[in-house]
Structure formats: C-alpha cells, structure tokens
Amino acid sequence: MKTMKIVITGGPGTGKSSIIHELEAKGENCIHEISRQVTLEAQRDGIDQLFLEQPLLFSEKLLEGRLNQFKEASNSSANRIFLDRGLPDVVAYMDYFNTVYPEIFSATCEEHAYDKVFILPPWKEIYKSDNERYETYEEAVRISEYLYDTYKRFGYSPIEIPKSSVAERTKFILNQL
Predict the structure, then answer these.
(1) CATH fold of 4-175, please?
(2) What pTM value is reported for the model?
(3) What are the residue ranges spanned by the domains of the chain?
(4) CB count, 10 Å around CB of 70?
(5) 38-49 pLDDT tens trace
(6) 4 contacts: CB under 8 Å, gap ≥ 6
C-alpha cells in the first residue's frame, strides 16, 4: 500500500504549523517543517543567519532534509502523511531570492511527487514575525506567489485553503481527501 503524501504549504505566517498541530491532535501522521531546525543548527555552529549568509548551503541542507522527509513518508505504513512544506518550497524560495542553483534542485522535485498540495494564502490579520521569521508581510505575499508558481511548474494544482479558524481549515483539508 502506497502512503499518500500531502503537502501543506504557503508563505511565512499563514498558519501552516497550527494546522499541522491540529491534524496531529486529530490522530493524523505529520512531518514538521525543518527550516527552523537548520537555522538553529547553523547558529550553534556560529552562523547567525545561514539563510542570509550562505543561501545556497542553507537551501542544500533544506533540500536534503526535505528529501529525507519524503523518503520517510514513502516508507511509512500509514495511509497518509501530511508534510509541513515540500521539496518545491526550496526552489520557490531560491527563485524569490534570485539565488542561482544547480539542476539537482529541480530534478529532485521532478523525481519525487506528492499526492496532494494544499496552500495557505497570505493573511495579514494572523501574520507575525519572530526571531526566525524576518520577512515583512509584503515579502510574505510575494513568497506566496512564488510558491503557487513553483508548484504549478512542477505539475501540481495547489488547493487553496480558505481563511477561517484552524479547526475549519483542518476540516476543509480532510474533506478534500
């Protein structure tokens, strides 16, 4: 039996993590976002903002981590697994920041397909910045546009999640499966 791999994506501050936590509370299998982990590991190694100081290295670490998450989901015995962001997110961010990257990034996205992609639109009322989220709301809107375009470029039809409570957004996702 093949495990259904479902991506929850969207720009910064759109509520992805809250939905992932709600899905877990409902007994769903979830894999969490790794970019904060990559950032914190770099800070322990003395690099304050790896994403800003060495964007390609940061993206390579993200691609590797997300590929490992994809493989973990593929090897699972669960019926379905929700992932907080997918491989194309790495490419979308590099395109947004105009970072030159090797073909392996696109090839990895093409070779590892998800079953469904849900995308959260920018939502100013819930947007908050913090120590790891330094983008302005306007930048978050532009990143969202890149995410939409990148997922479409890799053959996905992202399903937009309506703006509503976490419970309602989670229910919307589950009803689409």
Answers:
(1) Rossmann fold (3.40.50)
(2) 0.90
(3) 4-175
(4) 22
(5) 777 877 887 677
(6) 79, 80, 81, 115, 116, 177
